[in-house]
Amino acid sequence: MQSLITAPAMMQELHSNLRSTTLRFRAGQLIFDEGQKATRWYEVIQGTVRTCRFHMDGHRHLTGFFFSGDVFGADYGTYGTAAEAVTDVVVRCYRVGDITDDSTPKPQLDEAVSILFRAMSTAQRYLFIMGHRTAPERLAAFLLCLKQQANDDPNIFVPMSRSDIADFLGLTVHTVSRTFTDLARRGLIEINGRDSVIITDNAGLCRLAGEYQDSMTADVDTDIHPATDLCLGELSAA
Known about the structure:
The chain is an alpha+beta fold. It has helices at residues 8-14, 97-100, 106-130, 135-149, 162-169, 173-185, 202-209, 228-232; strands spanning 21-25, 30-32, 40-46, 49-54, 60-66, 71-72, 82-85, 89-95, 155-157, 189-191, 196-199. It has eight helices and eleven strands. It starts with 7 loop residues before the first helix and ends in a 6-residue tail after the last helix.
């Protein structure tokens, strides 16, 4: 489920190295527009944000959903998408100049780089989803990503509309609704109202998405290439 909003004092303590402003947006409100100068980047504290592009014919291409802890708007020059609040949201806003100035202290740069790596991780999440071909595979991958976002709680919150999901997965609304019903019929999920889904067969959903059930969990004992330590300069010369 969505994280509770952090108390202001705690937010200041957790992000003392980077200057930021906390902003609130109502559901449906525009956060920034496509083509606008990218002078800020954002971290979701509470709620859900979507990014999208609009074609000349008015067709909308939804490019991503962002949840608590996700980073969006880390674009260069101008924003390549528009960002909108799906639900009422609280975001933390950072100035681009605070991390591009040569005089920026190292702790601030370290923290900024860590947050931007989270932005890259979010992008990889959606590349994983769009790499699937069929509607059931895409929806299964999408639900698994929501489950991961919900800290592996099988009862996942689905705040976006079926239309939003269809735009994002490149499907029709009818296909998305039919696929939800099909996954429920196969015993993989249970539809718990309009905005909640219970994953009843995680292993089966993983197989459908082409993922190992434990693929999200790192194996700390797994050997890496023997040359890696040499590359990183961690072994002394013989």
